[in-house]
């Protein structure tokens, strides 16, 4: 029954995705009022915000939460729209700064690791593959629901890029290298590590926070330069990604310094516009201490 329900949901999503975005944003507005009324994950969001911004008042925390709900509803319908949005419209809605960085690396036969967070609309970031000669390969954690996992992989491959499960990433990198395929490896690096995953601890948003070190280890293994992708929401349905170099030669970096740098860049974006980060995620679920 779960499998049948998943297929029905996906079909409904496809039908909805045929509507133009201005109409879909009306659905988003309706969903926002429902989400606000039921208090979707309110306790988790409030706790995360309160610990992250200890000097903000309850009213300021409430304002950020409401703005987050608004953005989150837009994010959901934008992900659904990814099924049928045209390439022309996508290139208008997602723009990029510092693309020449990748041209330079491509011309020098270098692959690149691109790190981003659950900020802005990370699913639309795959539009980058429309602007690079190298192949974008997105690293992901498979979903438990196989039907929805397949659905999300199709969305993330809309523009010809590939997807690599975390446990197979190194094997996929070796295959691309053997095929002489230049690539940009996209990794989201702000999720909570598993209990027994190697991790690095630092202060992030005023809290003791475990950070996954996979991106740094992968960069060292592949000897690839690292960039951070800052995704700013310019206005509703429009985003701009700025590529900020983290290191061009990781062999010259001290241990965890690359991880520390990309964490600070994400933190800077969150502090500036907190409503665009995924506050409903239990980011600190394995932390015994937050302060």
Q: Would you write up a description of this structure?
A:
- Helix content is 45%, strand content 20%.
- It is α/β, with parallel strands linked by helices and 291 residues long.
- The protein has a 7-stranded mixed beta sheet.
- Strand 3, helix 7 and strand 4 form a beta-alpha-beta unit.
- The mean pLDDT is 94.
- It has one domain.
- It has 10 helices and 9 strands.
List the helices and strands and how they pair.
Blueprint: H1 2-17, H2 21-38, H3 42-52, H4 58-81, H5 87-93, E1 94-97, H6 100-107, E2 112-116, E3 135-140, H7 146-156, E4 162-165, H8 169-178, E5 183-188, E6 199-204, E7 207-212, H9 214-222, E8 226-235, E9 238-247, H10 257-272
Parallel strand pairs: 1-9, 2-5, 2-8, 3-4, 3-5
Antiparallel strand pairs: 6-7, 8-9
